[in-house]
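User: I'm designing a mutation panel for Sulfotransferase and want to avoid disrupting the core. Could you give me a predicted structure to guide residue selection? Please restate the sequence first so the numbering is unambiguous.

Assistant: Good idea. Sequence first, for numbering, then the predicted structure tokens:
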Amino acid sequence: MVSYYHFQRMNKALPDPGSWDEYFETFLAGNVVWGSWFDHVKGWWKKKDSHPILYLFYEDMRKDPKREIRKIMEFLGKNLKEEILDKIVYNTSFDVMKRNPMTNYINEIKMNHNLSPFLRKGVVGDWKNQFTEAQNKQFNEYHEKNMADTSLDTHFRGLS
């Protein structure tokens, strides 16, 4: 939700998301540009039963990028030399990608980087600095209710 909010703030092609508090309610209601996040995620999660899809999580990539890249290699049936794997780990690190104009989308016509850079922070759990305790409680309840019919573990952790 936090990433969507900042992306919508900086993307001139999208409607202004309003304040964080307004966006929080809009997001939970599923009234964002791409529709309900919950429906979107659950729809793709169900596809794993009929399509070969590899799911990776940002938290896992930050924790152990080499392990996650090996998962991709295995999924694709590839076996790369260790030095190539190390180059991939380096060049796909958040800090390197943030400095690379090929990955950190810089288009001042469509994006207002004064409001928010395309690649913002890359910090796992930084959403805790955006949510109030009441919003965290509300989101956790909403998430539990809307994701109850799925086995997906989204790595969400409360403020407590």
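For picking mutation sites, this is relevant: The CA atoms of residues 47 and 53 lie 8 Å apart. Residues 133-146 form the longest helix (14 residues).
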